[in-house]
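Researcher: Structure prediction, please.
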Amino acid sequence: MNEHNAKLRILFVGRAIGTFYIFETVFETLLSRGHTITALRDPQWDNAHDAKAETVQALQNQHDTFSIESIVQSAGLRRKILFRTREIRSFRRYITQSGQSAYYTDRYAHYLPKSIKRVSKNKIARALIASPLTEVACAAIEKIIPADSHVMNHIKQLRPDVIIASPANMRFSEEIEYVKAGKKLNVKTVVPVLSWDNLTTKGLIQIKPDVLIAWNSIHAREAAQYHHIPEPSISITGAPVFDRWFENKTPSLDVHEFRTAHRLPQDAPLLLYLGSSVHIARDEAWLVKLLRHALDASEDNELRATHIIVRPHPGNSTPFAHLNVPGISVIPKQGSVPDSAEARQLFFDTAYHARATIGINTSGMIDAIVLRKPGLSYVTSRYAATQLEAQHFNLLKQSNAISLVSTPESFIAAMKKILAGQDERASERKAFITSYIRPCGIETPAGAIIADTIENTV
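Model: Predicted structure follows.
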């Protein structure tokens, strides 16, 4: 708690309202302690689903101290200059960051100003961008250009005791403008890490907050190494997005009811395929068909009977829209993230009744790990740039919390062990949970620790 147990006015600055569910337990804890939260959204990043975000609606219905407003967007020549130099600094981080996939560097090159984008693949141009002089020049521009007056007026109007901004490092980030203005106004600033890959596959955190909230020691190292956040400013809290999985959840349907509701065979083992985003794997239908074929070709009756449930990534469901193959079901058809009670329950029910999960590279694998479900990842050169060459996936690989398979034969061998009850990664999953998801204690919600951190920042 903050020293005098005072009730705080908290300003949360986000991007799309659809990502607010990530901090649901943080919001709930702060509101339950009597604090007031004004959450700002950036309408340009919202979509139709975001506008109906259940998390936000529930918080508004339950707490008159929680409100939603829109950000004040910076404008004019100042914005153009700053946003261009920020993209250059972010691109510089990519080309000077060791161990990262070239895919993410090339992807970020597309965000550069046209004049620089045209020469971004030239070795001499890249060497110039990578030069420390470029960082010094861009940082000087950032320092010279003052905070946006409209944003500062908005903060003055709201009179927050602390500003929380996340993700604050994606392209065209308006959140970082509130961090910049908040520091000018001597308002404490906090930036919580949004996702498991946010510090390695997104842009640079341009303005150093008073506190950066990291999930774990890996995030803390990445924040210091890649974003130059001073180590004393980094607080490790655990990952709030997974807090709900630690609650005493039970399936809403028993196995017979679940299979009946989704028209699944009653006695077949279930394998849950977790879809990846379009950036990771554009069309995964070929892989699901390959897995189905491998199961069908097995001499083992139980393997042949195994039914595959595909859970598409909500941003990459099109490849499965017309998938009509015996032994494969798509649930839900349009994909989903566990951002509401109903969506979480469906994910939980599906994972609970499945014998194992498999996928390429998705945060859904971490959801399944937290739910103690055996998991596989199919490693293929087709997705090397966004899988084995990606830093965040390699951290998962190195943890041994999932098993890697790379051929139909190794997939079948792994599935045979799982169906026989051999859970070879159980201890590694537990270690991953305690080190990566809840490093501050398995019984303590990350949302509560983050709330403590915010209170102690003021």
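Model: Residues 245-436 form a domain with the Rossmann fold fold (CATH 3.40.50.2000).
Researcher: Thanks, that helps.
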